[in-house]
Design brief:
- The protein is of the alpha+beta class.
- The chain has a domain at about 5-95: Thrombin, subunit H (Beta Barrel), CATH 2.40.10.320.
- The chain is about 20% helix and about 25% strand.
- It has helices at about 50-55, 95-110, 120-125, and strands at about 5, 30-35, 40-45, 65-70, 70-80, 85-90.
- Strand 2 (about 30-35) and strand 3 (about 40-45) form a beta hairpin.
Length: about 130
């Protein structure tokens, strides 16, 4: 089961059956990237199935994030079952921020000229990781 909750101020939400947010009907826009705290390498997530597969056995920290194709940032939360839940934190990154994340990721791989890595949209940045 996959759950997304959007927490604002004192509003708390109950688990939902799909990637649907509380009041604003906010949907996760796939594909996404998984950004682990302290690691510049990014993990491409094409779907919620990919997210759950990547997180099997993963001990994630409270600072790990999932970023969707619109730039919305989510925290990872695990429940008693093996489900991975995403909690929206009302942060949205820009295409420039996404480009910087991709530059750091590619620097680790040392395969691409970093100055050529610029994207018009967050979605374009995430899609480049698919290959």
């Amino acid at each position: 089961m996959f759950t997304v909750c959007f927490l604002s101020s004192a509003v708390r939400c109950q688990p939902l059956s799909r990637a649907l947010c509380l009041l604003e009907k906010f949907m996760v826009n796939w594909p996404c990237i998984l950004k682990l705290d302290g690691d510049d390498e990014l993990i491409y997530l094409g779907s919620e199935t990919d997210l759950n597969c990547e997180c099997v056995g993963l001990i994630f920290s409270s600072d790990d994030r999932v970023i969707d194709s619109e730039g919305f940032v989510y925290s990872l939360v695990s429940d008693a079952s093996t489900a991975v839940n995403l909690v929206g934190n009302s942060v949205q990154i820009s295409a420039e921020d996404a480009s910087r994340l991709i530059q750091c990721h590619e620097f680790c791989r040392a395969e691409v000229c970093l100055t050529k890595i610029q994207f018009e949209t967050v979605s374009d940045a995430i899609k480049c990781l698919k290959s």
